[in-house]
Design goal:
mainly alpha; elongated; Methane Monooxygenase Hydroxylase, Chain G, domain 1; single chain; 152 residues; 0% strand
């Protein structure tokens, strides 16, 4: 005998969608702050003199820092996309609640939170198209000094 699909309580679904959106918004904010910190650290490294480190060690450290910044740049678009999906899911859950028309005192808190989120976080704030200042800088590796077959 096939299992019947259990109908989901729209208010519980709304609560889950609100919490998911809040978690994704925190994640995106964290990644943005982390990216700014990493870019500032990299800029400081590039402007600072070698000091106690010799040039070769400093170059390795700078390459590692550049990799960290590139990784941070690659994570942000995916997180923003998931935030947009969470917003879409929240909008759909709110539409189901409004269709049903029933809100109880217990669920009014989540309905109010959802309405506030939808009001404050429209698509314009979570756009997937990167701005020119968000572009990842590309560095060119000079391989002219390498011998044939030598790895860099």
């Amino acid at each position: 005998m096939p299992l019947r699909k259990k109908e989901v309580d729209p208010h519980r679904d709304l609560m889950i969608r609100v919490k998911a959106f809040e978690r994704m918004a925190k994640e995106v904010a964290f990644y943005k702050v982390d990216l700014e910190k990493q870019e500032a650290k990299l800029a400081d490294m590039k402007s600072a003199a070698a000091g106690a480190y010799d040039e070769e060690k400093m170059a390795v450290i700078k390459r590692f820092a550049e990799t960290v910044v590139a990784d941070a740049h690659s994570v942000l678009p995916d997180s923003t996309m998931r935030l947009n999906k969470a917003l879409t899911d929240l909008e759909a859950a709110m539409a189901r609640i409004k269709e049903g028309g029933a809100t109880t005192e217990n669920n009014e808190e989540w309905t109010q939170k959802a309405e506030l989120i939808l009001k404050n976080h429209r698509r314009k704030q979570t756009s997937l198209s990167p701005s020119p200042e968000d572009a990842v800088p590309v560095s060119v590796t000079d391989v002219s000094g390498l011998a044939e077959g030598e790895a860099f």
